[in-house]
Amino acid sequence: MGRAPRVLIGLTLALLLALAWGAASGALGLSPWALLSGNADTLSTQVWWQLRLPRLLLGVVVGAMLAGSGAAMQGLFRNPLADPTLLGLASGAGLFVALWIVIFQDSAVNSLYGQFAAGFLGALSVCVIVFGLAKRQGGSAAVMTLLLAGLAINTLAGAAGGVLAFIASDEQLRQLSLWGMGTLTHALWRTTAIALVLISLALWMLMRSASELDLLQLGETTAHAAGLDANRLKRRIVVATSLGVGLCVALTGVIGFLGLLVPHCLRLWLGPGHRLLLPASMLGGALLLVVADTLARTVAAPAEIPVGLLTSLLGGPYFLYLLMRRSPSC
Q1: From the centroid of its chain, how far is CA 256?
Q2: φ and ψ at 326, to 5 degrees?
């Protein structure tokens, strides 16, 4: 058996173990074996089917999407620091969703689908802006442009979010506060089912781009000579990333650093080949988010820590470490 199948099988087994742990852990302890055998009591069965299972499935698809989009964007920009959060995609999606919540929260226009559309449009708008800025640069200047553009967008989105919080009602303010820290608390079957379908479509679009991303690493001129349509590849990744990240933010709020931490670590271990890196990142992102959400539900039980805080506490120091390694003065 080659290395790639071993890595993917190992990550899949680790994810299954994490799901079993997440299924059993929480304010109410559940036995996976009792649930599978049908010997669980009525309360345990209801908690499992109505609360815990949709939450675990949502954690899997959201983690896979954030990490997979991070791996794809790092390959597209040929920059290991590219990430949906750092580049402002999550902030842009978050700002549009916050606008939707504040403007339409109490009107007949408000709907779950409108919130999804707002997240998608916000992520797409930011992606187009950042991509246009990076296209005008090259070499190390492109890296600096990416980071500065992401910083500017995150700052503007944060300021606009503060204004929205100021004018929001008490109910809207509570919703914005919890949602802004990232949480899987509101996972329901109707939201999880939509996420499974649409995010799976976005992940499929990214997986279709694996071989082309490998060609792009040789440079656009060489890739074009090999028959790659770079513009079509860029459009596909922009749309897939915007759709997936926008939906993730609309459903769970901003969960930071998964798109940087997971693919960057796996790239150092597995190498730059995207035919292995993309599925491994998706599995690794799902694994990390399921573990982080289980910890968020159990560390301070019966209270719950927003999972976005845990991923930021993990990813923030790692990002600083990466910047120190890349800095010539350190």
Answers
A1: 7
A2: -85, -15
Tokens for 133?
């800025």
- Residues 6 or more apart whose Cβ sits within 8 Å of residue 220: 230
Q: What angle do CA 152, 157, 158 make, to 5 degrees?
A: 100
User: Measured at the alpha carbon of residue 253, what is the angle toward residues 249 and 258, in degrees to the nearest 5?
Assistant: 75
- Give the dihedral of Cα atoms 244, 246, 247, 248; nearest 10 deg: 80
Instruction: List, for residues 237-295, the tens digit of each pLDDT value.
Output: 888 888 888 888 888 888 888 888 899 889 888 888 899 999 999 999 999 999 999 99
- Express each pLDDT in 14-38 by its tens digit: 999 999 888 888 777 676 666 666 6
Yes or no: say if 150 and 158 are a contact pair by the CB < 8 Å rule.
Answer: no
- What is the C-alpha separation between 211 and 223, in angstroms, rounded? 11
d(CA 294, CA 149): 34
Do residues 284 and 257 touch, judged by C-beta distance below 8 A? no
**Distance between CA atoms of 185 and 122, rounded to whole angstroms?**
23
Q: What are 132's two structure tokens?
A: 């246009």
Q: Are 34 and 25 in contact (CB under 8 A)?
A: no
| Pairwise CA distance, residues 318 & 263, whole Å | 13
